[in-house]
């Protein structure tokens, strides 16, 4: 079975760079499964900056909603990097999909992969309780998605200032 | 002396589930000391969901303000789970009690327990500085309460995506 | 070469107290390099409270902007404590300085120190995405500064409830 590694951490904690390095160390070429969609200029700029950092050893696949399908479709070759679960959740909520069923399907799919997969997610629950009810629901959902995927993953790393701390096993 | 374990982490990081498992592993039946009060429907729903998850091996005690009294009163039998310090602090502030004195009394009480106690708290200080002055004061107080109780506790765990990281000892 | 230790953590996680203890254990007397400026009464009160905690074993230097200069100027004797990078970044942004160049210069300067230096910084990226665009840019910059300095530092510690977790090496 292909090993699965979940990398979590705060914004700008170095998760994506660490995840890219970790993925390429598992094999090359690698597949970058992007969940980001450019809804506004700030996001478009962030996506472009991330892509510019990645070189020719990457093939990019876009999967804003059907992440499990993209994971299964890319299996059998080199390692995959999913970046990231938090934007995926945000897309699912915006599209009014059943995010709990989708997260369950994704976590279940990890066990049937033959090639490795590295997954990036975000810590969003360690600040003050948001005043906005929608933000509270989002951070609850994000935490539950992280827990479910962590349970299914072989390894979980918590990234602080660019360095990984071992959470699981 | 009864062992004391503080479990901290962000919202939906799996703290309560981990704390329940940890408590039951220390002995059964166990006492659940709840600090939550249902001030609104969102909170009422969260309390009901948490209670539904706990089974018959738990006896529930409500202690929105007099947590130290509830801790002392429940001593001598099975393990206790205090869930959580952050809501307790919130109740103390709302009732205009002296939260520093209350936290000191609670921390001091840990040393005189004969049965074990597991304590849940929240990380609320790792986001951007809140614009709201009351929120800034709350996160300062929450951090200080966590430090004081951590100092008194035998073990401190930091929960990430449902898994504990060792902070102390 | 003087050892460098970066201590990060959320608000009121006990970083400053830990950093002061760590610095004094490296030698005495020590130099406290303060980046804080009292822009308002809340900040003035916080600065005064921090100073009151430090004793006669400390000499205080103020460096709201020229942190690298203050670091170099204080080299050659006892250990230095820089408290903190996050306020320094905030001062640089307010003064419209090139914060990336300044962070690069500071990180580079660490390698040429002969006396040890302990550096405090803040985790600000583990809450919900701020609605305010300026706050989002600030948390991005703060995370990048932390990564750059962590890369240059010999040790990185993550402080939770007053206790250090090892991040690097």
Automatic annotation (TrEMBL), chains A, B, C:
Coiled-coil stretches noted in the UniProt entry, renumbered to this chain: none
Main enzyme class: transferase
PANTHER family found in the cross-reference section: BIFUNCTIONAL ADENOSYLCOBALAMIN BIOSYNTHESIS PROTEIN COBU (PTHR34848:SF1), PTHR34848
Keywords, comma-separated and alphabetical: ATP-binding, Cobalamin biosynthesis, GTP-binding, Kinase, Nucleotide-binding, Nucleotidyltransferase, Transferase
Organism classification: Bacteria, Pseudomonadati, Pseudomonadota, Alphaproteobacteria, Rhodobacterales
One GO MF term attached to the UniProt entry: GTP binding
Family: Belongs to the CobU/CobP family.
Active-site positions on this chain: 50
Catalytic activity entry: adenosylcob(III)inamide phosphate + GTP + H(+) = adenosylcob(III)inamide-GDP + diphosphate; adenosylcob(III)inamide + GTP = adenosylcob(III)inamide phosphate + GDP + H(+); adenosylcob(III)inamide + ATP = adenosylcob(III)inamide phosphate + ADP + H(+)
Top-rank lineage group of the source organism: Bacteria
Pathway, per record: Cofactor biosynthesis; adenosylcobalamin biosynthesis; adenosylcobalamin from cob(II)yrinate a,c-diamide: step 5/7; Cofactor biosynthesis; adenosylcobalamin biosynthesis; adenosylcobalamin from cob(II)yrinate a,c-diamide: step 6/7
EC number: 2.7.1.156, 2.7.7.62
Pfam families membership: CobU
Binding-site positions, GTP: 9-16, 34-36, 83
Task performed by this protein: Catalyzes ATP-dependent phosphorylation of adenosylcobinamide and addition of GMP to adenosylcobinamide phosphate.
Classification via InterPro entries: CobU/CobP (IPR003203), P-loop_NTPase (IPR027417)
Signal sequence segment: none
Protein name, entry field: Bifunctional adenosylcobalamin biosynthesis protein
Example GO biological process: cobalamin biosynthetic process
